[in-house]
Here is the input.
Amino acid sequence: MYGLDSIVYMISKFKDLDIEWLIMADEDVIFYEPNEIYSIIENMNRNNITVCGVRDGGIIKHRNHNPHVINTFFSVLHLKEVLKIWNKKEMLNQQFVIPNEFEEDLDLPYAYDTNSLFEHYYCFYLWLRRKKKKFLFLNVKMKPDGIANDVIFNNITILCHTWYARLYGKNKAQTDRIDKYLPESNSKYLEAPIVFKDRYYFIKWRLNFLKVKAIKLLKNHI
Here is the structure.
């Protein structure tokens, strides 16, 4: 999953590149109909939509957090539109919730919490919403295991998110579960990928983790 540091780093790296649409996916996302992403982009372009993804609450059985923002396991971002208004300082100051701020019909199948600030990256998407940027939230169907989920657009299953890839090869139960969703394929990259790597990512992640832990401990003692 993409953290806040990853989003800031991504913007800093991509701002001078000629990229209009950015497609992001976790390593445990399995694409079944990748060409349908073009249909999503056409829809977003036609309807002036900036962000597309799956709600982080109420739509996936085990994600019961904020339904007004997305979970970043898969998303499409109109990067050029974001860069037109990009303001890092302003964005970082958006990690707060205003009750009933977003008027939405949240008729969702699972629990959610509109007051949740569970993920540090929420501020990026809350900032975009407060900038009146439009979101397209995709439909989801849970797999029988109650963990993995399909992502659907126009009644077509585009991909499966297996979850818990970090346990693949380490935990037999999770490995066997994920193997069920892996299609037989010999496909390879048509072109060599361009890799952007933040050498200080783990250090920043660790410092942020310790900061959050310290804040929680202080609150418990007040």
